[in-house]
Amino acid sequence: MSKQVFITLPVADLAKSIAFFNAVGFTYHPKMSNDDGACFIVSDTIYVMLLIHERFRDFTPKAVCDTNQAVEVLVSIGLDTREEVDAIVARALAAGGTTYDEPEDLGFMYSHSFVDLDGHGWGVLHMTGMPGDE
Known about the structure:
Layout: E1 5-11, H1 14-24, E2 27-28, E3 37-41, E4 46-52, H2 53-56, E5 74-78, H3 82-94, E6 104-105, E7 109-115, E8 121-127
Parallel strand pairs: 1-4, 5-8
Antiparallel strand pairs: 2-3, 3-4, 6-7, 7-8
Domain VOC: 3-129
Protein name: VOC domain-containing protein
């Protein structure tokens, strides 16, 4: 069985976050969603769980980070093409997200980023190889 990754993020407004990630292009998974949280499929092995703050606190004794003051997490996702990188950032920005950088082309990797409605940073990249790989 393949390993699966579940990224769990706190969100202030679940309905707005669902609309945002639908617009970004992630696939909503209704069977793993309810009034306290929503699941999105990123790939066959990667899922994003969005939980309202109260539900998120059930998983940790620590306070939810104020992303206006500090960085909570940076999530990076590899995509198949540069065009996909540009497209997902454009959809995120159109849906109300922001960005803090410009696209970067390092030859072996093309990357850009967006910040979702709750201040979580998302790096999106397309890699053609790793430095040192031959």
